[in-house]
# Entry
Amino acid sequence: MNYNFNNTLIDFHLHSFFSADSDESPENICKNAIDKGLSGICFTDHIDFDMVNEDNSRLFLFDPDEYFNTLLKLKELFKGSLDINIGVETGLEPDKRDRLNDFVNNHPFDFVIGSSHLINGIDPYYPKYFEGKTKKEALDEYFLSIITNLNTLSNFDVYGHLDYIIRYLPESMVDSGTKRYSVIDYIDYIDEILKKLINSGKGIEVNTCGYRAGLNNPNPDFDIIKRYKELGGEIITIGSDAHNAKDVGFMIKETKDILKKLGVNYITYFNNRKAEFMKI
Ligand SMILES: [Zn+2]
Ligand SMILES: [Zn+2]
# Structure
């Protein structure tokens, strides 16, 4: 499909009731996207093998046949007013490699985000992750686990919300000032991560959920996005990570404007796992 997205707004990270942490109907997401003036969206519901939601009631899995049936109908329904792509956000863990590969390869996804949601088996969303660690230890472990993931797993198009652990830092670990941590303190890990992504032809996503979590930036931090560019990276997608209809498109325009000022000239989107570039 040849979308003409130039200078339009797109949101390439969205969750619906196919994700264990969302109750939103995919149709509402589409309607809100149109109301907000978006021209294209990509559903990226969660697959995290063996992970359960907060009240232990649901697994982070969906039935791919039901998923494609539902979303293909919406694609048809909204044809001409909204372009709808079908993707997935996979939770990367080294021991899940074969299951993730099977899942991704056996279905015609347009786009695959690879994200770290569990760090050595623990979700940093919960305070337990930080217990008994200094800030440096907690962040070192986080960045090192990403390097391990990248050494083991490669079946994804962009790395999701790099540095999002910052959203969950306990108050006692937050730096004073406008930022919660300094990218420069972790630059060796970050450079290694970015170089691995660039060398394997993968991108990063800019995830605007950081703003909803009270940060002054998306995830990753703008300093990391600048570094990715400096090192030669060119694949940057943008997404709100909305889990309900009202957050669809959240801060996409504002973030795109900042990216442009930082010298980012193209936003990437994916059709059939193939990168296409939209001028901004
Ligand atoms: Zn995620
Ligand atoms: Zn997400």
Summary: The chain has eight helices and ten strands. The two ends are 20 Å apart (CA to CA). Residues 267 and 278 are 5 Å apart (CA to CA). Residues 89, 115, 117, 160-161 surround zinc ion (ligand 1) (CB under 6 Å).
